[in-house]
Amino acid sequence: MKIAIHINGGRPDSWLAALPEALRAAGLGADVSVWAPGDAQADFAISWSPSPAFMAEQAAGLQALFSVGAGVDHILGVPGLPDSLPIIRVEDAGMGAQMAHYVSWAALRHLYGFDTLQAAQRERRWTSRLFAEADRCTVGVLGMGVLGEQVAATLDGLGFAVRGFSRSARDPQAYIPGVQHMDASHGLDAFLDGLNMLVLLAPLTRETQDLITLAVLRRTARPSYLINVARGALVVDSDLLAALDEGTLAGATLDVFRTEPLPESHPFWTHPKITVTPHISAKTVVSTSATQIAGKIAALTRGEAVSGVVDRSRGY
Amino acid sequence: MKIAIHINGGRPDSWLAALPEALRAAGLGADVSVWAPGDAQADFAISWSPSPAFMAEQAAGLQALFSVGAGVDHILGVPGLPDSLPIIRVEDAGMGAQMAHYVSWAALRHLYGFDTLQAAQRERRWTSRLFAEADRCTVGVLGMGVLGEQVAATLDGLGFAVRGFSRSARDPQAYIPGVQHMDASHGLDAFLDGLNMLVLLAPLTRETQDLITLAVLRRTARPSYLINVARGALVVDSDLLAALDEGTLAGATLDVFRTEPLPESHPFWTHPKITVTPHISAKTVVSTSATQIAGKIAALTRGEAVSGVVDRSRGY
């Protein structure tokens, strides 16, 4: 069995170190190597943002293409992707906990005004904070997949009032206790109504691209707070700035952007109400992910079905 | 019944507004007023940092003295306090949740290096973060009272490895799942051994004053992180600075200080590894606390025992 690693624009080292071991543990012998043009056909590939050249040479002969991240928009948009090639995402593998921590940090910072206190320290100013009650702060998580559910459960554990939204319905009897779930049948407006914080965790698809406009943000409580840990293209940048300027938003913590790295001239960098972090809210835990991928390769070679396969019609 | 409010150095307004209502709800009619010298003897008093003059005029005739905070060191040290006067602290009343949020914010900030990321934003620098795993980060909570237990449970819920220490033993079968409890029989060194973060939540007593020395900090993992939400006098300031300078501590988030407000010339204000906040980690929720105090006054007048009475020999 031949497995190609193709982390376009990133470093393959840790995968090259972890994957052979994980495959051995799954009972598989395999030739694992970093893909180079002209290489022999691989059976499976592990990739981030595959190049058109890789697609042209390898895609048609692959049994499955694994994304090293939870999102797969970096794969689905690449020319030359065969319709029949299964795309398989990493499911959680430690990312949910990190993302829950990132969102908790951002939410607590905003709720208690901790940034203002840290700014006061820089002026040696003994001040106070506003009275804050998490249970009166309603946080909406847009996108209740594996990661969204973990974020929602963690915010619920911290005492926030939590609401989740996804396209499809959930069984309210079997759902996360304390978290209210809404779906397309309720409508997005019902979800947005009264939100004090909006957390974006939806996949980037044709439906979600440019979803977060000024009109959408105006549906939340005024002023609300935006946290984006999904994809930059969910948000219309100029509308976000307008929402901050008109007081619809009190601020935003953004981990993802339309162009990454965020260009030096982009107004988000210096906006006093925007916190910018460099797409770090959830780093792929390579060891855990390699074990998960090796297990799925073993299952596929036995002809079994695996979870995490992308539905091309939904785009995630 | 006469009740005196005496918030020395603070504002009594919210207590004056909330307490009569809470007493009515508890079935008690009472004359509630802010104490002034020469006032008639009160039956109960609600106080922060009572003055010696108040003690001289009122203490001997009180049935009980209520602290408006969880700590009571601001009362026990005041001259003229009769040995027999019951001192009753506020128990939780919404403070535990706030403190758990404060400590979570500080712990996540340190674990993920979020302050470094915010500093990078000020330079428009797209950078990265260190790999962080909460379950490999052991946090010790020194002082497992009502507040300490809530902090420990919340950190456990976030995935940290949590250890608690208090003077007296707990039943391990009936304790917070996931939290390891240690007491005097294990010894403080066993508790400190391998700690990546140390959270101070102990009351200020003769035993805990100046407890946190350089020698104690050196017992933790190197480098560890200190979070103090208890009382400033638990820590020897110069030893904390020495621990930072020698690399025993990577940093500290401090909400409490020996002198408050922290004097403008104090080195903590400008130390690059110290975060200073102005004693805000848990604000007394007056409405909830007033209800709790009114309920206890009602119980005491019926001759019943109440919880939260300070043990003078322990000092808390």
How would you explain this protein's 3D organization?
The structure is a homodimer of 316-residue chains. Chain A is α/β, with parallel strands linked by helices and 316 residues long. Chain A has helices at residues 13-25, 52-58, 73-76, 95-112, 114-122, 146-157, 188-192, 214-217, 237-245, 286-301, and strands spanning 2-7, 31-34, 44-48, 64-67, 87-88, 138-142, 161-165, 179-182, 197-200, 224-228, 249-254, 274-276. In chain A, strands 8-7-6-9-10-11-12 form a seven-stranded parallel beta sheet. A five-stranded parallel beta sheet of chain A has the order 2-1-3-4-5, with helices on one face. In chain A, strand 9 (197-200), helix 8 and strand 10 (224-228) form a beta-alpha-beta unit. In chain A, helix 1 (13-25) packs across helix 10 (286-301) and helix 4 packs across helix 6. Chain A starts with a strand and ends in a 15-residue tail after the last helix. The model of chain A has no long low-confidence stretch (mean pLDDT 96). Chains A and B meet through helix 4 and helix 5 of A and helix 4 and helix 5 of B.
